[in-house]
Amino acid sequence: MTGERSKRVTIYSIAQECGVSASTVSRAFTRPDIVNDDVRERIHAVARRLGYQPNKAARGLATGRAGMVGLLVPDITNPFFPPLVRAIQKAASVQDWSVLLLDADEVAHEETELVEQVRAQVDGLIVASPRSPDADLEATLGDLPAVIVNRVVAGRPSVVCDNSAALTAAGQHLHQLGHRRFALLRGPEASWAARQRAEAIRAWALAAGVELVELGDFAASYEGGREAAPALLGSDATAAFAFDDLMACGVLAGLAEAGRSVPDDHSLVGCDDVLLAQTVTPSLTTVTAPVGELGSTAIALLRAAMRGDDAREVRLDGTLSLRASTGAVPAGVVSG
Question: InterPro entries from the xrefs (predicted)?
Fold first, then answer.
């Protein structure tokens, strides 16, 4: 080898290039949370360029930390979660953390079993959209530093996407298009997000003085949406809110099988804005979640939890994205 990589790279050579002490370089890898963000990122950038590979085993012995965090999701096949996983991995890499992915397959007791399996292997845990009751979740987590994504659990740091304003805007949009009878296709009973979204839609419908028919609960899946389609047809609603985009895509398929068109016969709104929402025909009007910010905030909150900081709740607003699945109320339908 020639050039920069021909010599053995040490923390001293990195320190010299960055203009900092060797101890600062060491802390940038062993205790990144106590190093200034700009300094830490500069040290890591130089280390990558020079090909420096810190010894994680030695670092673990020195710090008592594994350099690994767990990420528990309810269903990795749901298209909302892969972008969240990527965002969390990206933010974790800045801390030089590895991420251990855990999938509970939409089974609440699996969450408990998975946490117990990895507790000794990770320094902390991010739990996305958990299905376990609060008391069970708290008992499972115990003293393990943990952050909850898209759910609020008392005493635990959390980051949630607040869709209330965007769902209100979606309702107003449909109202302006002439719709007066709406259907709410509820998501899983165990889902905190499903309850929050339902409450926001109910509040808007009450304030707007429109009819709202609640249907479900339905699974947060394509199959759940197909099962919801006959119920929607029987409700006489001209517009519907689906719990999420995956369910909405199933509704599209179910309506098409029944010979009904979106948006000519029914308007449909999803939630989350997964890639499928943009590529399906018709493209879905939906609420866009700030997934990248959810991931980076989760890692920042986990850093704080590992330092022993007080728990705090962060709310990030979703935004309405108007696409082709919403249109004017069908001809012949009287709007009040």
Answer: HTH_LacI, LacI/GalR-like_sensor, Lambda_DNA-bd_dom_sf, Peripla_BP_I
